[in-house]
Design goal:
Elements: E1 3-15, E2 22-35, E3 40-44, H1 51-58, E4 66-71, E5 74-75, H2 81-90, E6 91-94, H3 98-101, H4 108-119, H5 124-137, H6 154-166, E7 172-176, H7 184-201, E8 204-209, H8 212-218, E9 221-226, E10 229-235, H9 236-241, H10 246-253, E11 304-307, E12 310-312
Parallel strand pairs: 3-8, 3-9, 6-7, 7-8
Antiparallel strand pairs: 1-2, 1-4, 4-5, 9-10, 10-12, 11-12
Helix pairs in contact: 4-5, 4-6, 5-6, 6-7
Bound molecules: adenosine-5'-triphosphate and magnesium ion.
Residues 12, 14, 25, 27, 47-53, 210, 276 line the site of adenosine-5'-triphosphate.
Length: 320
């Protein structure tokens, strides 16, 4: 196993003024998943369910409140010195917005060289070769190295962000909504590029997205999140063909499909997503669940196997 997340939590203290009580945002509220060498695992869920918070913890930009993240079996919390540096090299990131993630004042050459120089001391010629090599891998000419980010389109900028991530030969790239800020017409190109690179360098991807169609075609396994918890996880094909959790079913039903044999959609998901600041008791999804029974409002459902490699947390999942 390359990456493993166990019972991870991130709680943020917020507010708390002179006249107002503070609160705790339970952004990530106890969930686990794993990513194998060379595979693509997706996390999906509506806005605010905690996806980016997980990415930040995996990237060590946020410290978990509880739980553990293991890389090749070793807890990140115990890494230091060369091991910590190696982890930072092995796990890279590509974010949603290539406009915000590339420093506008630096030339592309410097942007790509930065992570390389954090880990190695190549001579000028070797550094130059390495930068031009990764630009070539992402389909940009060597001349791109001398330009600034604003001289490129959104798709080209995302290629630069991918080149920067690749420059240090990572084992895993965290992709947080990597195409959702891009023009629809170029999304497929970036996805194809990511797929090519994955095969060529045997990369693992942890992809975070709210776009189900993207997840369905791009990931091998998927975890569906709701308000900081995983509600269902399993092989992507299986979860999409036979969703077991009412939330997954509602999410899938909300995607328009041309397939006439597709099961009739459930009612659109009722109500607003609840707040991570004051999540409902019991199953957090119960106020919006079309099938909720009394028990769902009281008892948080345990994580259990649902057969065919699925697992999930629903009191009624056995009955579906
Ligand atoms: N630094 C912070 N302080 C307080 N609350 C935070 C902080 N970061 C995130 N949150 C809250 O944690 C919850 C999860 O946020 P997160 O950004 O992880 O969601 P997300 O699934 O990535 O959403 P989106 O799809 O909109 O990107 C939200 O309620 C958010 O407001
Ligand atoms: Mg996010």
């Amino acid at each position: 196993m390359l990456l493993e997340v166990r019972d991870l939590k991130k709680h943020f203290r917020v507010g708390g003024g002179l006249l107002q009580a503070g609160g705790t945002v339970r952004a990530v509220d106890g969930l686990g998943f794993s990513v194998d060498v060379g595979e693509t695992v997706a996390l999906v869920g509506e806005s605010g369910c905690g996806k980016t918070t997980i990415a930040k913890m995996v990237l060590m930009l946020e410290r978990p409140t509880e739980g553990a993240i293991l890389f090749e079996g070793r807890d990140l919390a115990g890494l230091s010195g060369a091991d910590l540096k190696a982890y930072r090299r092995h796990v890279q990131a590509v974010f949603q917005d290539p406009y915000a993630s590339l420093n506008p004042r630096l030339r592309v050459r410097t942007i790509i060289a930065e992570p390389i120089l954090a880990h190695e001391r190549p001579d000028r010629a070797a550094l130059r070769r390495r930068v031009e090599e990764v630009l070539d891998v992402v389909g940009l000419p060597a001349t791109a190295a001398d330009l600034f980010p604003h001289e490129f389109s959104g798709g080209q900028r995302q290629r630069i962000a991918i080149a920067r991530a690749l420059a240090v030969n990572p084992r895993c790239i965290v992709l947080d909504e990597p195409i959702s800020a891009l023009d629809v017409s170029i999304r497929a190109q970036i996805l194809n590029l990511l797929a090519d690179i994955q095969e060529r360098f045997r990369l693992a991807y942890l992809i975070i997205a709210h776009d189900l169609a993207l997840v369905e075609h791009f990931s091998t396994r998927v975890g569906v999140m709701y308000l900081g918890n995983m509600v269902e996880a399993g092989p992507t094909e299986e979860v999409f063909a036979r969703p077991r959790h009412p939330y997954t079913q509602a999410l899938l039903a909300s995607v328009p499909r041309p397939d006439p044999d597709h099961r009739p959609p459930l009612d659109a998901i009722r109500g607003e997503i609840a707040s991570a600041l004051a999540p409902p008791p019991g199953c957090k999804f119960h106020p919006r669940c079309p099938r909720a029974v009394e028990r769902c409002a009281i008892e948080p459902p345990a994580w259990r196997s649902l057969g065919r490699g699925h697992a999930g947390a629903c009191h009624l999942a056995e009955a579906t």
